[in-house]
Amino acid sequence: MNFPENLKYTKEHEWVAVDGDIATVGVTEFAQGELGDIVFVEIETEGETFDQDEVFGTIEAVKTVSDLFMPLSGEIVEINTELEDAPESVNESPYENGWMIKIKMSDTSELDGLMDAAAYQELTGQ
Q1: pLDDT band at residue 18 under the 50/70/90 scheme
Q2: If pLDDT is split at 50, 70 and 90, which confidence band does 1 have?
Q3: Which of 21, 49, 70, 115 is most buried, by the most CB atoms less than 10 A from its CB?
Q4: What does the pLDDT look like over 47-67, one tens digit per residue?
């Protein structure tokens, strides 16, 4: 199981990569493994602003549909449109090609509430 050290993590099994005031968000390798084969990702919220923990989309696997939660407050400035035609990218490459959204963060202090790789690994029991 892969837990990249340079990322932050949420209890909802999402990862966050920060570059300046932009945060890239996706689901973790652990999450995609628990979900199984991803068949559809629905995110139609580009340009919208959300508070931390609000639902910004859904991810559908063969047997379940799960909500996607904002790990940080901010505006969704980009959606990974490649996932429309290739939702399996979330399974194959969760930390690279399988990213979901990019957020222009409105409160960078919220990063302090996210987990580092060691804490997330402990949460998952891996």
Answers
A1: very high
A2: confident
A3: 70
A4: 999 999 999 999 999 989 999
CATH number at residue 43: 2.40.50.100
Asked, for residue 6, whether it belongs to a domain, the answer is no
Of 78, 81, 62, 60, residue with least CA distance to 23: 78
Q: Give the number of domains in the chain.
A: 1
Q: What is the pTM of this model?
A: 0.96
Host domain of residue 102: 24-106
Nearest to 18 by CA among 102, 123, 74, 76: 102
Position 89 in a domain: yes
pLDDT of 61-84, one tens digit each? 998 999 999 999 999 999 999 999
Q: Report the C-alpha gap between 20 and 108 in whole angstroms.
A: 10
Contacts (Cβ under 8 Å, ≥6 apart) of 126: 1, 3, 30
DSSP 61: E
